[in-house]
Design goal:
15 strands, TIM Barrel, alpha/beta, 8-stranded parallel sheet, 11 helices, 369 residues, 19% strand, 3-stranded antiparallel sheet
């Protein structure tokens, strides 16, 4: 592990090198024209399970999972180009204008680690710039890490690690993230991984993949945290959460920790391991009760945030009906923002833009804040 003092010394050295490079112009500051009251760190959970900032004010997360595939790709794909930062700043301003207060970003593991023990300091510098944009726009960040969304991007050395080696480098990834941005008031939470599973597709005989199943489009959103088929899901996830949480807490004692669960089983079994529970639910047309039951059956002493939802498999009216039926049983919600304004979507004739336009109108109309 890289100790905190050594890591900060590396940051200083990296900053000097980074600022002197002529072929990377991303060291500029974010938009100075966005002004207003600064954010207050979300630090507490009230007796009613509501999130509270350092001033004691209630905070109800209402926002987006962010990506702009058409102009950027994954967020780190082109962030060595100044044009990418202009797009990000514009998109964050648009999300704020649509009354979002939180944005979920997805960080790719291989972009932040040069090898299993060496952090990519330039990537960490760029993450600081992204956090500064969030601060200036007054948007909180749900930082999801360890993503491996493109199978082709995974380095061979990473794919060949054992379960224990994988966990060790996961812990180092999060230790570095926490040391870099943990003090920012804009960082609402660390989401350890998107939709982790254990030994899916692994029988102990034939080598299995860290990214099981088929891709959704070109991306793999589900990831094995271990490939040992003898491990049970609950025990493995709890142990893995503990390893990564301890790494984060060595650098950041306050920022909340969660995991983005598929919700194939009860997530309440992890209420003592996480600060709050995150679940991904896409209601299906004609089967809304299944999604309603999933929320009702996952009530616990911890807040429950619907971290992903949309009218992907149902109409916007059915999505609204779903939320009406679970009113009072969730403490936050996030849809998706793909970098297109309402006007751009209204002028588009694609089905996907029509669905996204419907969601955006729904999101604005149902804003609880």
């Amino acid at each position: 592990m890289v100790c905190k003092t050594y890591l900060r010394a590396l940051f200083v050295t990296s900053s000097l090198l980074f600022l002197s490079c002529n072929n990377d112009d991303s060291a500029q500051g974010s938009n100075p024209d966005i002004v207003g009251e600064s954010l207050s760190k979300i630090t507490e959970i009230g007796a009613d399970k509501s999130f509270r900032n350092a001033k004691g004010e209630q905070f109800f997360p209402w926002g987006f999972n962010y990506t702009n595939v058409e102009k950027i790709g994954l967020i780190e794909d082109k962030w060595d180009q100044e044009s990418t930062w202009a797009v990000i700043e514009e998109d964050f301003s648009e999300m704020k204008n649509y009354k979002a207060n939180v944005v979920r970003i997805h960080l790719q593991y291989h972009q932040f680690m040069l090898d299993a023990t060496t952090p990519n300091l330039i990537a960490l510098e760029r993450l600081q710039r992204l956090v500064k944009i969030a601060e200036d726009t007054r948007l909180y960040l749900d930082i999801t890490g360890l993503a491996a969304y493109r199978k082709s991007d995974s380095p061979e050395w990473y794919s060949s690690l054992s379960d224990s080696e994988r966990w060790a480098t996961h812990a180092l990834f999060w230790k570095n993230i926490a040391a870099t941005v943990g003090e920012s008031k804009a960082v609402f939470a660390y989401n350890l991984m998107n939709e982790p599973v254990v030994a899916v597709g692994c029988d102990g005989v034939v080598p299995c993949d860290w990214l099981p199943g088929e891709s959704f489009g070109e991306f793999h959103f589900v990831q094995n945290i271990a490939r040992n088929p003898e491990l049970t899901f609950s025990v493995a996830i709890k142990d893995w959460i503990s390893v990564l949480s301890n790494a984060i807490r060595s650098e950041d004692a306050h920022t909340m920790i969660t995991v983005g669960f598929l919700g194939l089983g009860p997530v309440t079994r992890f209420e003592e391991d996480l600060d709050y529970l995150s679940i991904h639910i896409y209601p299906k047309s004609g089967a809304l009760q299944e999604s309603v039951d999933k929320v009702i059956n996952n009530q616990s002493g911890a807040p429950l945030v619907i971290e992903e939802t949309a009218n992907l498999y149902c109409s916007i009216e059915e999505l609204e009906s779903f939320l009406t039926q679970i009113d009072g049983n969730y403490e936050g919600l996030m849809g998706h923002y793909f970098g297109k304004t309402l006007e751009e979507m209204q002028n588009s004739d694609t089905v996907s833009d029509a669905l996204r336009r419907n969601f955006m109108n729904f999101f604005i109309a149902n804003n609880p804040n």
